Amino acid sequence: MTRKEYFTLFLAGLVVLVFVASLQHSPGYMDAEYYLLTGQQLAAGRGFSEPLLWNYLDAPSGLPHPSHSYWMPLPSLAVAASTAVFGASFNGGRVLLILMAALLPPLAAALSMQLTGRRGSARLAGWLAVLPGFYLPFLTTTDSFVICMLLGGLFFWLLAQRAADRQPEVWQHVALGVLAGLLHLARAEGPLWLLLAVYAAWQGGGWRAGLKAFAGYALVMLPWLVRNVLAFGSLLAPGGGHTLWLTEYDELFSYPASLLTMQHWAGSGIVSILGARVGALTQNLASAVAVGGLVALAPLAVWGAWRLRTQKAIHVGTAAWLALLLAFSFIFPFSGARGGFFHAAAALQPLVWALAAAGLHAALEWGSARRSWDLTRAGHIFSMGILLLALTLSGYAVQQRVLAGGGWDAGAAHYAALHQRLNALGVGADEIVMVNNPPGFSLASGRPAIVIAHGGPEPAMQAARQYGASVLLLEAGQPGWADLYAAGPLLSSLQYLDEVDGTRIFRLP
């Protein structure tokens, strides 16, 4: 492909992204709100610190709290860099991420060229990245999707390039490790990418090459590991092990987190344990087909992988997909079914686009051999059909996720209204608020916040006393709180202050 074609793909991607971005005026959900908030903290010179607690997994001592004890820091660092240049706003924080997302179409095309050497397949892969289906609404907010896709695409592009070189250079082995380290800084399943990088380097150049890949990983990760030691006294943030023993997703917000033990998990019973994992596996497979494969592209991607099965990038990509599927189905089934697999699989998406394009070419060759299809004409027809499907599903994703219901920005607007009402009620700006979504509330209000503990009023009141929360924002439907919510102004144990759009405000004792 020519430079002009790559640049055209970049511009086309940028136009689509800017259009979708124009429909979003806030991060949209808790993960993205957290990254924007902590990125703004970094840009303001407050370091890796957060004015909130959205879980109690690491037995926090209080506020402010060391940030990124659960999520990894690279998206926040990208937001901080963008904020420093373009301003402390949602739009300012995502400019860099949107520009990075616009690089995905030319990267997918370049990866396809490395794998197949066919310009037609490369063009199709690039245009599939322009119209990425269900991922589209998430490429224009402050989350890890863009970073994972870009790093994952570069990882597989490098593997494909190394396969074309008879004697890979030292920098290629180190670069694999660097990309693995950056993927770890982006998401917690990063150690998987280290294993894949070391394995790929070792296969290509022996144990010395494997050590070079590990050195590249260590070069990236060492500063973060040192920070963890200084902040938490351990290489990895404490508390993550508690998530192994969840029996339902909402236990992620348990207080104290020491309640989450192997005995607690085993006590839920074998039927519950197996049922959760079978359910997660089913949902993750459905996600792989519908989201990653755009429904109809999944068989083509499999066909393309089979046709290119001798290439190392396919071996590594298949191993990565299987490992992520198993990890988020059997080890972390609740986070996996609630979006963990969807997030993690983003790193494989550029490879999926390239494989789908390769699979179409294989299907066309089959049709030409058995049905006497004209390859050029059939290729144009089927490519246009696939892109029409991608356009339809991309539009559907934006309509459903961004425009339908209360809209993408409903949560941010609601928390802004609550903040104004708290001001009118005389609640001090430094008073700690207990709320369902602390990152979203703190971002909208600038107030410190802690999460409503799982299990109903008793553990929540314990957490409120421990961390000094003085106000409770109780939304309708909060599990375990139905009686207290219904009592409202008649409640004697808490002081009812007011209500804003169904959220009741209480003064805590």
Descriptive terms for the model:
globular; 6% strand; 509 residues
Largest sheet: 6 strands, mixed
Rg over CA atoms, rounded to whole Å, is 24 Å
Average pLDDT over all residues: 93
Separation of termini?
A: 68 Å
Parts with pLDDT < 50 across at least 5 consecutive residues: none
Strand order of the largest sheet: 2-5-4-6-8-7
How much β-strand is present in the residues?
5-15%
Structural class: mainly alpha
Q: How many structural domains in the coordinates?
A: 2
What is the string of SSEs from the N terminus onward?
A: HHEEEHHHHHHHHHHHHHHHEHEHEHEE
Total helical elements: 20
**Residue share in helices?**
55-70%
- The beta-strand count equals 8
The geometry reads as globular
Structure description:
The protein has 509 residues and is mainly α. Helices cover 64% and strands 6% of the residues. A 6-stranded mixed β-sheet has the order 2-5-4-6-8-7, with helices on both faces. Strands 1-3 form a two-stranded antiparallel ribbon. A hairpin with a 2-residue loop joins strand 7 and strand 8 (503-507). Helix 4 (90-102) runs parallel beside helix 7 (145-164), helix 8 (170-186) crosses helix 9 (190-232) and helix 9 crosses helix 13. 51% of the residues are buried. The mean pLDDT is 93.
Secondary structure elements and pairings:
Layout: H1 3-21, H2 30-43, E1 49-50, E2 52-53, E3 65-66, H3 74-86, H4 90-102, H5 104-116, H6 119-130, H7 145-164, H8 170-186, H9 190-232, H10 262-266, H11 270-292, H12 297-307, H13 312-331, H14 333-344, H15 349-371, H16 375-403, H17 410-424, E4 432-435, H18 438-445, E5 449-451, H19 457-467, E6 469-474, H20 482-487, E7 495-500, E8 503-507
Parallel strand pairs: 2-5, 4-5, 4-6
Antiparallel strand pairs: 1-3, 6-8, 7-8
Helix pairs in contact: 1-4, 1-5, 1-6, 2-3, 2-18, 3-4, 4-7, 5-6, 5-7, 5-15, 6-15, 6-16, 7-8, 7-13, 8-9, 9-13, 11-13, 11-14, 12-15, 13-14, 15-16, 17-18
